[in-house]
Sequence to fold (459 residues):
Amino acid sequence: MADTLTSSDFVPQTVIPPEKPLPLMRGLMQMIANPLYVWPQAMYENPYHGVKWIGRTFHYIRKPEHMKAVFLDHADIFAKSQFQKKLVGPALGDGLLTAEGEHWKFQRRAASPAFRIDALRALVPAFSHSAQETIERIKAMPAGQTVDVMQEMQHATLDVIVETILGGADPEFGYDRMARIVSDYIETMGKPDMLDMFGAPNWVPRPWGGKGRRRAAELQQSAANAINRRRASGGQQKDLLGLLLAARDPETGRGLSDVELRDNVVTFIGAGHETTALALTFSLYLVANAPDVQERLLREVLDVCGDRPIDAAMVDNLVYHEQVIKEAMRLYPPVAIIDRMATQDIDIGDAMVKKGDFAFALIYVMHRHKLLWDHPERFDPERFSPENAKKLHRFQFMPFGAGPRICIGMKFAYMEAVAMLATLVRGLRFLPNAAHTVEPNIRITLRPEGGMPLYAEKR
Ligand code: HEM
Fold:
């Protein structure tokens, strides 16, 4: 592949993979502490390997052709696996992210109108408004201190998603309460469970998830309260909750049950803010460390938008912003692993997957794979220039998954991230923090350990 490094040669921090596979017990312990330290260097150099473990094979895939086979060509054979359901199920129940079959199809159809392009375009002013509020919060902080941009981005994206789903701020989904719930949940439920790894059945008691499960129940109660308040008000809003309440299955005429409504409110609030916040967090870290990229962003936003609030037509023209966000998600994909389980024997190319086997799509590894990317460790938004992007395999960049289960919020996320990044860069200059080590860790999502303290000064 041609050398594309024209706008930055910054090599960001990340974990150094082990040179050789770890011994079994150390590997399992490390899997719980941080899976990124388990995958040896060879995985970034060769396309596939399978590991037999308690009667099944775990297929670790990072080759675009395998991704296409699992997520598109044989999507009907690869079901969501118990691992994903274990991690997010206690909070998200059987909502759109976790449901299967007809139940999934019905919910996807019901939610789709909220994600049509015209509906999303109308949201852009809310995205830039939320970023502007972030700028004001940061400006009000004592000068010379670091700002945890991870917290700030979570705050900004939470405000937006609650507004989009519930049609306005909701006291039970305020930032401080939600930040505590999300971090308690991720801390207790976000690690692989040793008993699951040894194939222990579900009835074996797992006393360590108590706090996370309590937080999940609080979240579900808040969603139920929001739904009850909407019903009592008799309102017919066109927000996502309004659409879900009005949805009817064309064949049976049935609507979503109370539990389905609740699970989807939690699903959309959970899936719709943490991931975008992380894409923005890592974008700001990279931009802070690549002043030439930051300058180019500033020039673009000033050329396209001047000092006006950002709207949808402007977002279409903030092309370099989208390149930066894509490159940030290549290096730090918010969803770093996507897992599936085969329901039938199937050949995915040069690997035979048996019924009951797991396919682990290692998005993080594929995004840094030596066979696919030139200087994969470097931050270089030019990889995603309109011209260079054409040369990429359709399945070598998969931050949003692929196939029928591709993220329903993908366009929402791009528009939100572009509008927010542009607003932020225009209002503030981000500067690196040499005293902080950036260490990503997979805890459901790929998060920087200890947040992301950066310096920010007003322009
Ligand atoms: C940068 C931001 C985002 C990233 C990286 C991301 C990533 C993903 C990925 C990888 C999947 C597929 C999971 C799988 O196949 O098992 C997914 C599904 C999903 N995402 Fe996102 N997402 C983002 C933003 C959003 C937003 C903004 C929303 C809602 C407003 C959202 C809602 C969902 C839902 C409901 C699903 C399940 C879709 C289905 O199965 O039909 N996501 N997301």
In short: Residues 84, 96-97, 108, 267-268, 271-272, 275-276, 279, 334-335, 338, 399-401, 405, 407-409, 412-413 surround protoporphyrin IX containing FE (CB under 6 Å).
